[in-house]
């Protein structure tokens, strides 16, 4: 029975064979996609437990895909939660500080007295809400931009993926 190989990638070292293993050690500086010859040359032997058969890679990537989908939906939920509380905050501002003529005409002296107590403090409230929210938002924007720039993929990967069909990478399905 012939086993169909899902990934056929040449070792990046000239005159070497097809890559059979990949190294997933975090500190490793050698080629992560390599062949038998490389291991005979002594690469990766210091962390032999982090070596995987290249055919297992598809499973590893499927796993990462699943986990990163969860991360994306968690981030979406956070975004929705923030939108929700902003809407609530805006509604409270409308209710507490916006009085049309019609709304004012329905008030008695006691109610107007109460509302004036709020209105005279409006500028303080405005300043503090804006400052606090702006401070948090600036922090959050800065962090998210930092992560976004860290997640930028290397130029090499983008260039290579354009000519992938001419490459030695062959992805087959059963
Ligand atoms: Zn090699
Ligand atoms: Zn290694």
Question: Key terms for this structure?
Answer:
single chain, 174 residues, mainly alpha, 2 domains, 6 helices, 7% strand, binds zinc ion, B box-type domain-containing protein
Low-confidence stretches: 165-174
DSSP strand content: 5-15%
Reading side by side through the largest sheet, how are the strands ordered?
3-2-4
Overall geometry comes to: rod-shaped
Order of helices and strands: EEEHEHHHHHE
- How many domains make up the 3D coordinates? 2
Average pLDDT, to the nearest integer?
Answer: 89
Classify the helix fraction into a percent range: 55-70%
End-to-end span in angstroms? 14 Å
Instruction: List cofactors, ions and other ligands.
Output: zinc ion
Classification by helices and strands: mainly alpha
Number of helices: 6
Radius of gyration: 30 Å
How would you describe this protein?
The protein is mainly alpha-helical and 174 residues long. The chain folds into two domains: 7-59 and 160-171, no CATH class; 99-159, no CATH class. It is built from six helices and five strands, in the order βββαβαααααβ. The model is unreliable at 165-174 (pLDDT under 50). The structure holds zinc ion (ZN) (2 copies).
